[in-house]
Amino acid sequence: MRKNRAYIIVLIIFALAFLAGNFVHPELLKLPYLPERDFELGLDLQGGIHLLYQVDLSQIEERERAETMTGLRDVIERRIQDRRFGLGVVEPMIQVQNDRLVVELAGVVDPEEARRQIGKTPVLEFKEQRPEGETEKILEKIEEIQEKDWEEIQEIENWHLAFEDPYFQLTPLTGRFLKRAEVGFDQMTNQPLVLLEFDSEGAKVFEELTEKNIGKILAIYIDEIPISTPMVQSKISGGKAQITGDFTVEEARTLARNLSAGALPAPITLISEQSVGPTLGKISLEQSLRAGFIGFLAIILFMIIFYRLPGFLAGLTLVIYTFLVLSVFKLIPVTLTLAGIGGFILSIGMAIDANILIFSRMREELSQGKDFSQSVEEGFNRAWPAIRDGNITTLIVAGILFIFGTSFIKGFATTLSLGLLISMFSALVITKSFLKCFVGTKLEKVKLLWG
């Protein structure tokens, strides 16, 4: 009964490996309904630009500088994400380092446009709803210019209306009037909210705006992107207001941080730029894959020579393990860099290390005259503490690297951690299931096969 269970598990494993293999390399059989997705490659493999910006915090109070840097990071990330396809960016990597911002854009198509978009100081604007008549005119113009080229558009009367926001219009209130934005809590419900405070001039402008927009939306934009659309409940005097909503504490903090980033004078200056061409990235990727493949074959050859049939099974397990890990990298997705590939290759070594511990313990049990089934169980039971402790300590180190490391170190820590977790599954489930298939067969009696 237990042997039949092992056969069923092995069939499931092979089915899973088959799907994972075709997901990793969809050109193999081109299975229908299997999603196609490319690996996301980092700056060093795909090419792109590495930008280092200095942030001028001279006008920012010491206690507000960390929040300002985080807010600037959020605004720049939103800019890139909003225009990512135009810039050709796969996945931006943005980090705060004291008073500097590190921006890595892999696969960027237009470096000049990327620098222009990133280098702008965030612009905070408050917009009021347009009268219905103006909205209808703009929507009509938008409809009128559809499927027309630029020359034909310019011949239309008042064509410029088609390029305006049909629902909101600018007001005199901008980020330069905002003194601060911070998180607060409703005294009755303890619900998080965002508190705004304007300077004296801004207080007058805000009072006039709220008086004429009661019951209407006063939208808040950063870089022409709406970040909040609160409803004006009443005329607000004194320059203080609050934005309420169904916020979590983190959402309220993010909104306050973004408002502050758009209001505070914190310009950024490009101080360093490094470009990686796609050709150089392609060469690096090919060299990495070649090195990984040679190492992979060397490991399997070593296992077969020293452990014979268990070594062959470990090699088969390693192939399945590789398909599973690469599938996870695609699904999450993980942005692969040279360091990340290094972490993956290291995890392959850790996966084999677990098998070596298990097979060594099995040999000891077999040498003591125990039967094959008992040797398999004892081999796994005795090897497990060493596998567990070794992997946990490595995961702790990987966690520390991820928290405190740079982007490339984070990539290494991520791929290593995922590889370790899947390696424990492959050793304790896949390898064990393969070995159990030989229990009660004639092959279990052939000592030459088992060392």
Features:
elongated; 451 residues; Multidrug efflux transporter AcrB transmembrane fold; 2 domains; Gyrase A, domain 2; 13 strands; single chain; alpha+beta; four-stranded antiparallel β-sheet; 16% strand
Question: What features would you describe in this structure?
Answer:
Helix 10 runs parallel beside helix 12 and helix 13 (372-404) packs antiparallel against helix 14 (407-436). The chain is elongated. 56% of the residues lie in helices and 16% in strands. With 451 residues, it is α+β, with helices and mostly antiparallel strands. It folds into 2 domains: 48-130 and 167-271, Gyrase A, domain 2 (2-Layer Sandwich); 277-450, Multidrug efflux transporter AcrB transmembrane fold, CATH 1.20.1640. The strands form 4 sheets. Strands 3-4-2-12 form a 4-stranded antiparallel beta sheet. Residues 84-88 have low confidence and may be disordered.
In short:
By secondary structure, the protein is an alpha+beta fold. It is 56% helix and 16% strand.
* Shape designation: elongated
Mean pLDDT across all residues, rounded? 83
Please provide the count of β strands. Answer: 13
Question: Could you describe the largest sheet, including whether it forms a barrel?
Answer: 4 strands, antiparallel
Tell me what portion of residues adopts beta-strand conformation.
Answer: 15-25%
User: C-alpha Rg, in Å?
Assistant: 30 Å
The total tally of domains equals 2
Query: What is the C-level CATH assignment of the largest domain?
Result: Alpha Beta
The CATH topology of the largest domain is Gyrase A, domain 2
Helicity, in percent? 55-70%
How far apart, in Å, are the first and last alpha carbons?
A: 28 Å
- The helix/strand series, from N terminus to C terminus, equals HEHEHHEEHEHHEEEHEEEHEHHEHHHH
Task: Count every helix, treating DSSP H or I runs of 4 or more residues as helices.
Answer: 15
